[in-house]
Structure formats: C-alpha cells, structure tokens
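Dear all,

This email documents one entry for the complex benchmark we are building for the journal club exercise. For each entry we list the sequence lines for every component of the assembly. Then comes the predicted three-dimensional structure of the complex as a token string, followed by one or two observations. Please use this as the template for your own entries, and keep the labels exactly as they appear.
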Amino acid sequence: MRRIAFLFACVLLPLACQVRADEVQPEAPQSVVRVNVTNQPWDFGRPWGKRPPYSRRAIGTILSDNRVLVTAELVANANYVELETAEGGQKVPARVEVVDYEANLALLKTDDATFLKPFKPLELTHAHIGDTLSVWQLENTGTLLVTKGPLTTAEVTRYPIDDSALLVYRMTTPLQFRDSSFTLPVVKDGKLAGLVMRYDNTTNNAEILPAPVIEHFLLDAKKAPYEGFARIGITSSPTRDPQFRKYLGLDANTPGGVYIADVQRDGPAALGGVEQGDVLLQVDGQAVDQDGNYRDQEYGKLGLAYLFSTKHFDGDKVKCIVFRKGEKKELDVTLKHRPVESYVVEPYIIDRAPRFYVLGGLVLQELSRQYLKEYGNDWQKKAPENFVYFDHQQNELFKNGPKKIVFLNRVLPSEMTVGYEELSQLVVTKINDLAIQSLDDVPKALAHPINGLDKIEFDGEPKIIFLDAAQVEAEAAGFQKKYRLPELQHLN
Amino acid sequence: MIFRLWPAVLALGLIVSPLRAQPNEIRKSVARINNTMQEGNYRVPWLPGQLSGGSGTGWVVSADRILTNAHVVSNARFLTVEKEDDPKKYIATVEHIAHDCDLAILKVQDPAFFKNTKPLALGGIPELESTVSVFGYPIGGERLSVTQGVVSRIDFRTYTHSVLDSHLTIQIDAAINPGNSGGPVLQNGKVVGVAFQGFSGDVAQNVGYMIPTPVIRHFLKDIEDGHYDRYMDLSIGIANTQNPAMRKGLGLGDDDRGVMVSSVQSAGVCGGKLEVGDVLLSIDGHDIASDGMVELEGERVLMSEVAERKFLGDAVKLGILRNKKPMDVTIKFDHAWPYLMQANAYDTQPTYILFGGLLFQPLSRNLLGAYRFQNDRISYFYDNFVTKEIYKEHPEVIVLSEILPDPINTYLGEFHDGIVDEINDHKIRTLKDAADAFAEKPEFYVIKFIGYARPLVLERSAVEAARERIRKRYNVLAEQNLSETEATSASR
C-alpha cells in the first residue's frame, strides 16, 4: 500500500507567508485524540510469516457515539491500536469497528466508556471550491497547530487501493513536520470537512478525503454487514472525435454521451442490460458529457463514478439512457459493491493471511497485487512481466476462468525436489490431470495421485514435473520441522 | 566496423608480439575492411537512414574470397579492402552473409588484390591453455597488429550480432579490440578461429571470444551451393530428468538417461512429430544424458550440437519414449526457423504503413530499440512471441507506433502503442493484411486493437483530404514499405 509521503520541507516556500496560523479555537483539542497503531503486514514472499512490526502515530477525529475516525491505511494489518489524549497522555486500548480499505476509512471504538466522555464530537460539513480550510496537527504539548489553505479542486481520482476512484478535495497548504502527522483532520467552521490522505511537500498540495465520502461511509457503517461503495461496472472512453461520433451515429440532436468500452462480466451494468459499444447519454436524468462527466449541483463537472459510488448506495437503482444502433434505450441498473474476492488477481489482501500450500517443498500461492507489491514501489517494472500483465489485463484475459491464478512461488529444496531447485514464478495449470482454478483445488487433486505420483503441470517450461506422493506424505512432518514452517498450508 | 561491446581501448591489455616467427604469407593475407553503412531509421522509416563508417579485419580464405564477420560488413553501402604492403584500395562486395553465425564472404572485383596472397588453411579446435595469435587492425594504430593469448574456455555462447543464436565459442585471454573483428586467430600457421566479440573493460578484462573452425566450416559448407540456408534447429524445449519421481513418472529407469520434451514449436521441424512429455533417449545413435548432454568425439556437449552440425535437407534420428513406449522418430530439417523478429535485423529496410498520420510497424527487436512503448502488452507479446506461439495468430505483430499529429487524428492519443487486431472485420496477421484493408474504400476505416474494445475510426473522406497535408508537413517520402529488401516508391 502506498503511504502518505510525509516528508516535510524544513524551509517553507514564500507562499507560506500568505497563510498564517489560525487563532486556536478553544474547543478544538477536545475533538481529537492521538491514535497509536502497531502494524504487522504478512510477508507474501514467505506466506507463512509476517514482516517485522512497526508503529505509527496519528490523529483521530472524535465523532458522535464515541467513535474515532481515521484513514484505513493507518490501521491496515494492525496488531494493536490505542487512543491517547493529546494533553495528559492517558492511553486506552481500542479496536477497529468498521474498515473500508477501498474508501480508505476506518472507525475505532474503545470499550472504556468514560475515556471519550470529556470530548466534544465533531460534526461533518461539505467544503466547496474557494473555501478556506484548516488542517489540524498536534504539537508535542498537545496544543493544536492549525494551518490554513484554500480548497482549489474537487475531482474523482484514484485512492490508495489502485482500483477505487472516489471524490477527492485538493488544497494548497504549507504543512509543517510534526510527530504523528498521519490522518490529519481538515476543518471548516469548526466542522470536519475531510482527512488529509496524501501530501506533497514540494508543491504543498494536499489531497483530502472529503466529507461526502465520509458521510457515505458512516451511513454504510450503520448497516451490518458493511456493504461498501457501489459501482456500475463499466469502462468508458471519450466520444470527442467527430469521426467517431459520426460513425456511432451521434448527430447534433444527440450531444455528449460516453462510449462504453467494456462491461464487467456479471457486473451491475451487464445485469441491467448495458452492452459494450453502447453510448451512455443520461443517468438519473442528468446529461453525460463526451468525457463521461456530469454536472454535479455541488461540485460542478465530476466523473460519473461519484454519482454511482457516493451519491448512491449499494442496491440503489439508477435509470440509464443509452444510445444503441441509432436508438435510445432506457435501462435500470442496480448498483452493487464489487467484493474483492471476485477479482482473479485481488487488488489487496489486508488483515487476511495469504493463502498457500507447500507441496513437498513447492510453495504454491494465489497471484494477488499484494504479492506483486512485494517487489517494491516499482513492482510494475520489477515483478515478473507476465504476472504484471495478468494483473493489468485480468478483466480481459480470464473471462472464462480460472477463479484465481495458482503459481509456484519458489522451491524449498529437499530430497523430493532434486532437479527442481531453480523453478519459480510458474503458473500451475493442472495437478493429477485436474484443472487448478484456485488453491482449493490443490488438495482435491492431490487426493488422486497417478500411479503413486503427483503430476504437476505448468504453463511454462518445464511444463510437467512429478513428485512421489507417498514420499511427500511421509516426509511432510520432517520437512516442516527442517524449514521451521508453522504450517504447510493455509487455505482459509 | 566496431567490435561489439567494446567501447574503449584497453591500453594495458595490448600485448603486441614482435612478429617473430610469423611467415610473411600470413601478414599478406590479412586485410583491413572499411565499411560505409546505412541503417534504416525506425522512427522515420521513409528516410534513407543514417550513414556511418567502420572498419574491421578479413582474411583470404580461398583463391579469390575474403572471410570476415557479418557485423563488419552489415548494412554496407560501400566496401573497400586494403593490404599492408599495397597502396591501393580495392572495392569489395558481400557475396554471402550469415547473421546467425556472424560470418561473411567478400568478393573483390580486381583480381590484382589476390596477387601475393595465399589462402589461410583452417585448423582444428585448439587445446585449452595453448597459445594463439590474433591478427587484425584494431584501434590504436594504423598497421597490422598481432596479439597473443591463451585458450581459456570452450563453450556455447550467445552470438551478440543476432542476439538470438548461440553456437560453439572459444574464449581467449588475448586483447581483442574494436577493429579486430573478422581477423584470423592462428596456431601453428593455421586458422583456429575468427575474433568476433568481447566484453567492455568495465565488465571483464582480457576476455575475448572467437568463432571456432566447426562453425566456420559449417558456414563454408552451407554456401557451397551458392546460397546460405542458415543453421538448423530442433525448435523444442527440454527439461532434465534428474528427479527420481520425474524419472518414474516418465517410465525411465535408474540409468541417468533421457530428457523430457517440455515444448515443441509448431512452426519448427519437430512440429507435429514430437509431443510435450515425450522422452528423448538418443539422437543419431548418441545416448542423451539426464542433463541433456551427449558424447561427441570424446567430449560431453549439449545435444543441440548434433542439430548444429546439420544442413537444410538433412535428417536426424531420435530414439524416444512416448507414453513409456519406445519408438524412433526421424526429423527432417526441411526449413530453417521462420520467425526472427526477436533477432537484430540487418541489411533490411524498416517496413511500415503511414495512414491518416498513424504509423503502423511490425514489432521487432529493432522497433523496440527505437521506441519506448508504454503498453505492457507489447513486451508480453515480444517475450512470449515464440513460447506462447503468438506467431500462429500474428506472424507479424502490428503496432501503432507513432501518431503524426494532424486534425484527423488529434483525438486518437489513447490508441498509441496499441496492437492491431482487425481492420474493417479483416483479421490483421501481417502488415500486408493491413495494407490490403487500407486499400479498400469503405465509408469508415474501423481499426480494432487487441484487448481494447473501443475501435479507432477514421472517415475515408477525411483520410483522403488529410493525405497530401500530412505528406507535406512531415516530409513523408513514401507512405508505406511492405518489403524488407527494397523501399517501394511513394505511391500506394
């Protein structure tokens, strides 16, 4: 996961002079607490273990009903969470009540009913372009440090989980470096307008996770189970090119409209009858322009994703008008959240242990973007090229399965695997003639060895290898002990 | 011509031998070759290309022929040869060129060149640790230079001229520098190799490579009929069978024999004759060991060496095990491997089509060297072109490599780096297919790219109106070239 780049410049740019620290509002420190988190992510390269733990400090915003709001990034793979009063430094353990990694939001709760009593919860408010917003930080003493800046832009853009696009506010503000500068509240007129999600200290640009997304999350959080932000399941492409418009038959009477380049299989749009090649003209009576934007009452031109994800909820129906072969068609689409498990290459695996199966020293896993990110920030260049290609093109490549890509990550050498030591990064296609659609198929296939041998097939060289089934079983315990593996498989 | 990979002189490495016992004939039979080259420009393929010059070494191999490296005389527009004791520059032409083994034969128009020369005789493979002398015209001076070195290693290595081919290579520790290329390496008055490649001084020092006589003899024999047919290859992948379970699964005993066929290229000579999972036990009567080696004339060499020694029209007899049953398969070498886009190309003109300002070019190693493509599908198609048999559907992978901006294509930026799949419902397998589709006269040209459902649409009337404008603005000398051997005229 991308982390917020909180490298603050020591010297502030001249721009900073225009913005002076706000007068401290007396009630302000009483609406935030420090949040101390110890995170320990799983090691997807060695899926039986975790990486060393690390700790972070952040600021939590207190909301009504004794809830504390932070970004989901802060609590990803958290082992331990505690709240700490800004002044006085009293601490109390807390737990994550609801988390949405796609919307990058989490609610914390503590069982100590008295701890948050003295504090005054913040209400939410929407901010608009031109508003001056205050970013709150805490001094070591617990006093509030307030930096102001103007809200310049509201747009739909990518969130830390690369697959989700939601509303973001952008503001320019010269933040100073302070401890615990993760998850900073952004305030307008004493109300919460958003949380700082990313900050670039060279340009002083901050990306703010905005109130409309937070409100949506809080409403969703009241329902059990938590549903998450809905989407429509289309990929669109602009129709600006006059030649293309003419080819599609869009004349002067049919302005705007965005081309639907791809429809997610069995996704909401597909189920509602939307087809690849349609031109989406209207949603909920709102005209869609040539680039796939609509005119939002609050924020002006915005990507349609805002309408689907944030203005609506999972299960809502939207009325779409599409242009298909010279005719307009009205279609009802029921918006749904796309569960992360439905991806062939899952975009994130957080708070869950990686699935794996060690077969006589062959470490089998399911391909995920979380695994690819083990190759570092430039994983798209460093990870095996075909795996990155599978991840990027998964909607196109795996329309007919498999459910997950099972691959041989590495070989832990032993007597059973002599001659196979060098094998790695190979996609497993079959075991004992059974097609492998996910790791769940591995034990099923292994139940039926062929003439006492397990035959494993790959989509790359050497294509076929064999293991002695009886030997694998007999030596499993010894092998596990030798490599000190806590378990030989994890399939939950 | 510049010796590959040698950017700088290694002054310390030059051991100039005092020409003591070298018979005068040898010196007289070594020539300097000057090459004026012109290489097609893949970014602007209608231009004639950059001119450059280089020099290398050659030697008299028969009464009226000179032998040198292919890379010394590649892309030649004008060649001259000179001898040390003759003031004249003689004009030469390439008679045969073998890019797969980096050898070439030159003809000199004026027979006077060969007066006082004596063809150098070919010897065998020199012993390890024995001393050899390298003759040539490397940088650092004008006159013939001779250096001495010791034979360090005999191995299969990549020939960097094509980069796709590997043959027997002899490593020597004599200083070999740019300009040495093509020069004879002698021992006891006989040629034992041709100096051809080395490492740059910052990678490794005193490592030079020569082409040994088996490769030279193979080349000379191949061209006896007046035509170079290229090296033959089984075009299969093999996997070792050292693992006991693997041996059992394949029906092999405990005799360390046999390798498993792990891939069979359908376009190669074994296509349809061998299957993945077959076991190769012998080749032309030589037993194949479990690591893929055979014994030839007392030496353990890779089994591919047997195929290396074959010529077009020859056959090889394989003893195999299929489904554990022994059988014999005879493979006829009836064609050389046809798909060379992953090899460096020389003496060719870039092929392309410019249509509506869109430049379409077949994917090749040369093309990848000229552009920085962003589409990860291109590198996937390139790397897997052979292994995943992409050539079956796309013998040429046609890339939209460049867009020359014009009002007709100003909205088409998203298609940059796309791979063409269809034009007006015609499947595009080659550049010729694209040219044929563009020669039709539909109202719209509809171009579909692989993995991209939104089509690129050009209106025919707009293309025609833009044609002269684009040609003039970008000084386009010819709108297409479909043949690698000669540039076609400007018209389509």
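Observations: The mean pLDDT of chain B is 91. The interface with chain A takes residues 237, 239-246, 248-250, 260, 262-263, 276-277, 376-377, 379-380, 383-384, 387, 408, 411-412, 414, 444, 446, 451-454, 457-459, 462 of chain B (CB under 8 Å).
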